[in-house]
Amino acid sequence: MCNVSxxxxxxxxxxxxxxxxxxxxxxxxxxxxxxxxEEDCPPPLSSVRGVGLSPRGxxxxxxxxxxxxxxxxxxxxxxRGSAVLWNGAWRGDAVGGSDAGAAPAAARAVAVEASKRxxxxxxxxxxxxxxxxxxxxxxxxxxxxxxxxxxxxxxxMLRAFVTEFRPPYVFLGxxxxxxxxxxxxxxxxxxxxxxxxxxxxxxxSPETLVGPVFxxxxxxGLGALNGWTKPLWGALEAHDLAKVDVxxxxxYPFLGATAPDxxxxxxxxxxxxxxxxxxxxxxxxxxPAEALGGTNLPWVAGEHEQVxxxxxxxALLGGHEVRLENWLLLHALRDDGSNAQAYRxxxxxxxxxxxxxxxxxxxxxxxxx
Length: 369
What we know:
The protein is α/β, with parallel strands linked by helices. The chain has a single domain (6-29, 44-366), classed as TIM Barrel, CATH 3.20.20.80. Helices cover 36% and strands 14% of the residues. It is built from 13 helices and 10 strands. The chain has an 8-stranded parallel β-barrel. Strands 4-5 form a two-stranded antiparallel sheet. Strand 8 (247-251), helix 10 and strand 9 (280-285) form a beta-alpha-beta unit. Mean pLDDT is 90; it is low at 1-34.
């Protein structure tokens, strides 16, 4: 069995936020000012495809040539109307919270770039790093969701962010079912904080669609190859669906299926049985193209399997309203030795290989490069 512990998954989940310094340098037209650039963009499509923020040369610790970030946005923008996922902490000082209540500069920079290039920015405002909550503030050191100062600052930050950028989507928390499993007693407090944030967002920007994010394999108990066999549906069922516009999902079926054709045809039906016609957004997904690091993995990795998976995912979600789908990485990760496990498992879940050449999945996902 190949185990991806919750801390390892979270370490990878925070990868996109690690690019914050580079984003500050060039994410706002080179000035770092954060000034929004308006452009006459067509309305977003009812369903869009995109990628996570993943310039060439990126590693799990983040460092890269700033020019590669410019190239990333130029390429993403060439697919008119596509999406770019940003997944990070809800404040710049992630651990200490000294700036809690101010939108993180990296999230603002991505929103600015999206507005310049007619991209759909997909921000996920998280509040965990592995098993460590990122909730405490300078005014209140309580590191759980009984912290009323944190709840107020979370909501006020989101209200200001959507007032400025009017994003089509905002997601609150990433893979929240891990916290349901870790701290079931505090999860109801999180849902109350979510509800208050939802109301603040909708009051400022009624058209913005708001939802939580869950890892589907962990939520549904379908990650047997990773030891996830106990469903955690209570994490979803704790929500009032009247305050969930769209259900966000990270989807990695290779954690439970050896190959795309081994994914069962009713894979998502336990979800839709609970949410009915509610739309979903696949915030992250993909299939590994390579078995990195000489690891003997329990699933088949390959470029052919990536293309097969794209077709299988479309079939699995057919007949349901899917608002967006983001492939995890445009470019393969660079191995910097900071997290060998996460690199081996996710480093090749990319549409381009380490040499920068498009994989077969690129055209299957976006069309010709």
